[in-house]
Task: structure prediction
Amino acid sequence: MKHKQVIFLLLFFIMIIILVAVYVLFLYEQAEKNIYSNLEEIVKQDAEKIKLEIQSHENALVAIAREVERYQIKEKEEIFAIWNEYPPKNTFTRMAIMDEEGNLVTNDGKVLDFSEEKEKFFASNEIQITEPRKNKIENNLIHIYSQKVKVEDMELILMLVLENENYEQIFSKNIFEGKGHSYLQNEEGKIMATSNTNYTKSKEEEIRENISEKERTKLYQELEKLQENLQTQKNGNMKIKAIQQNYYVSYRNIGIHNWSIISVVPENIIAEGIYSIIIVSTTLMFFITLCIIISSIYIVVQNNKKQKQLYQLAYIDSLTKLGNIHFLKENAKQYIKKGMYFIVLDIEKFKILNEQYGFYVGDKILIEVANILKKEGLCVSRLSNDVFAGFISTKDIKTTLENVIKTMRKRWIDGYEYVIAVSIGCYQIQKETEQIEYVLNQALMAHRRAKGNALQPYYIYNEQLKEQLLKEHTIESKMEEAIQKEQFVVYYQAKVDTKTQMPYGAEALVRWKDKENIISPKDFIPIFEKNHFILKLDLYIFEKVCQDLQKRKREKRSIPIISINVSREHFVIENFLEEYIEMTKKYQIETKYIELEITESAAGSKNYALSKITRQMKEAGFQVSIDDFGTGYSSLSVLQSLAIDTIKIDKTFINNLEQDTNMVEMIINISKKLGIKTVAEGVETKEQREILLKLGCDSIQGYYYAKPLPAEEFWRKEI
Ligand code: C2E
Ligand code: CA
Ligand code: CA
Result:
């Protein structure tokens, strides 16, 4: 996952947490409000009920007291009788009367000694209600309502005994499912009753006891605040902070004796409610986050897939599964090491293969070539249609390249064998700092040498190559000007009859006179063949020869047969011959005086087309000759299908003639059978001439008789 995406996820997570926190806080606040309003309601109701209850208790006592005073009833039995008739008596456990000595008698005949606390009861003329106290008779918790009465000169205390339970029953039960409780406190802050009998002590006391030193002061302040509030505000709400937890408190003065009722509920009842919400929210959050993480991962995976697809599109060739030029440029750096070789490989005449066998076979050939290269090279890439490149690490580059070429040469595809010729340009890396563009350029330079060269289909870059290419470049830049300035001139080399030793014709050979330099055709013809300037030059030479022959004709001298070289580049042009015929017409030269020389490699590469071309040449009246015979791929059997008059046995065979006559002999014999004349090229010695004579070769062209001569000199001397 990317840095950015991680940050995004984190931010999202934080946002969710904040949202949940805000939500929980909101819920909390709402819950608090709810609690307070509930508590308030409870307190209000309880206060009302308790007030009424106390009032009714007091009323009962006051009524009895009044009767006693009014009728000055002294006898206890009589007082009890009033009590007995009084309806609300059932609320009370019993009635008691205390005299000034503290002797207490109850209506059910119990006698108790209250002398120790009698002062308290006699201290006030008002009704008094005691704090909860142990009943000396039944041992339960009771309150005593007391009222002083004067009967004659004697004071008595009338007492009504009320069980503490009485109050407890008035309180609302089950405050917050029993988690909260209320208590009643008197003016002094003493607990009079609690809603829950299980509370032996009030919660307030408990809080006071369990407190740490540190918090004690704070809590006291809080509780004092509560008492203060009770004095001043009569009712209200507050939150009391204690050690383990906080409490929500609602208080109300019940409006009698300055008593108050206080309801308390621990804060954790919210927490409990909210807890489930938090759990739900966090689970929800967890799932949302999980969903987001999963979808993010999904998106990232999809993105990666897409990127991979884009990478495939941008860097990988779909057909061969090799990288392309961009791939090469991206990855080359790690392979550029001193001594490593870089090659550019091109399938020769791939276009023709494609046309001849169809794209299906073409594609298969590309895949075959790619697979072979993959085995041999590193970072192998397909640069364009049929051009591949890659690095090769080897100790013997020549053998490696020869093997590659050999392996590719014959391939079986779907049960058919195809001949695949490739050309390779190779460059050996000199420095690690070289850039791929430079390396590629050097290999391409070398490749220019190898391309189209059937005999040497690979070329390893060397320093001279650069100079040669520079030369080529200069030649190319000067050629157009040269033809306009008539710098191309014709030299003639005589052809001699082997038997008579008499010249009967000549070959026209071009020379480039650049100022005083004479440039050999070997230096520019191959270049012109590549850039097609040869088409122009060949016709130009043809015209020059026609002009020379016309001149000769006008001089009424015998006309020799002149051979003119016609580059194979012409053959791709439909009806190229027409221009040649036109030219002969223009100079009124009969075509029979002209022999067109076609190189043998042309014969090999496009047999079918060539037989048609030679036929057309013959039909136009030209003589036709196959040049450099024996150097190309064509076999002697091909001769049969061509309409030719002569074959020129290549100089390499003549050079070797003194050692081996077999090949030449065979060529001559077969030619004889086919009615084709033979010319031996490059004959330099008498010995060679003797052998050729013996073998029955028809004519000879070579330095032995004559070198190519400038036109003037030739026409003057030779013929
Ligand atoms: P090519 O057609 O095979 O011409 C014969 C070459 O052999 C000529 O070289 C000639 O000078 C050379 N030669 C002849 N006798 C001897 C000998 O006894 N010893 C040696 N060492 N060489 C001999 P050149 O004139 O340098 O031409 C080279 C090639 O250039 C020609 O080979 C031909 O393929 C091409 N060429 C020349 N002129 C033209 C032209 O006008 N058009 C075309 N298309 N190609 C031409
Ligand atoms: Ca020739
Ligand atoms: Ca030749």
The chain has a mean pLDDT of 88. The first helix runs from residue 3 to 70. The radius of gyration is 64 Å.
